[in-house]
Specification:
heterodimer, A: mainly beta, seven-stranded mixed beta sheet, four-stranded antiparallel beta sheet, about 0% helix, B: mainly beta, six-stranded mixed beta sheet, about 60% strand
Chain lengths: ~120, ~110
């Protein structure tokens, strides 16, 4: 089945530093990947759609300069949280789909803690 | 704007019970509906995918139904086990994947 690998699973960083999260589709190619953020006891909120070879599409209210997305290949998308602050602490999850009709597969998530 | 609601928000049952989780959505123009399971601090595991043209899907002890015209889906879990304890999320896909807030299920031994 479709597998999406996300790394790292946990990261603790100091305020003001940047953190990169990787999302890889292991057994399929994904022209589009999605990045979500999940607050405690809340639903997943779509942050942005990552498009291979072009700019990401950000949801309303998401700062594109703070959350940099790069989708340089058909199997890899990265999310970089720039100049992280404690309020950026959250659970970030990526997803992708092998194609129409296959549904979505999610990575294992990244717990970011900014201290 | 698509909105997805899941009822109940939390459910606690004794082991062995059959149970039903409910999901409703406001816009019936969807391509598919997907049920996921999320364990604490973990990512999402896909349980069942129902295409808009389908009415139900089954996998083991799980059965999901879809009534697109009324904007409803149910996830039926038969003979529940403690290992079924998790948060169950319903998501519908039209222009993008929209999630409900989930139902936190606890199955007590």
């Amino acid at each position: 089945g479709a597998v999406v690998s996300q790394h790292p699973s946990r990261v603790i960083c100091k305020s003001g530093t940047s953190v990169k999260i990787e999302c890889r589709s292991l057994d399929f190619q994904a022209t589009t990947m999605f990045w979500y953020r999940q607050f405690p006891k809340k639903s997943l909120m779509l942050m942005a759609t990552s498009n291979e070879g072009s700019k990401a599409t950000y949801e309303q209210g998401v700062e594109k300069d703070k959350f940099l997305i790069n989708h340089a290949s058909l199997t890899l998308s990265t999310l970089t949280v720039t100049s992280a602050h404690p309020e950026d602490s959250s659970f970030y999850i990526c997803s992708a789909s092998p194609g129409a009709g296959y549904g979505y597969t999610f990575g294992s998530g990244t717990r970011l803690t900014v201290v | 704007k698509q909105e997805v609601t899941q009822i109940p928000a939390a459910l606690s049952v004794p082991e062995g019970e059959n149970l039903v989780l409910n999901c409703s959505f406001t816009d019936s123009a969807i391509y598919n509906l997907q049920w996921f399971r999320q364990d604490p601090g973990k990512g999402l595991t896909s349980l069942l995918l129902i295409q808009s043209s389908q009415r139900e899907q089954t996998s083991g002890r799980l059965n999901a139904s879809l009534d697109k015209s009324s904007g409803r889906s149910t996830l039926y879990i038969a003979a529940s086990q403690p290992g079924d304890s998790a948060t169950y999320l319903c998501a519908v896909y039209s222009e993008k994947l929209v999630f409900g807030k989930g139902t936190k299920l606890t199955v007590n031994p």
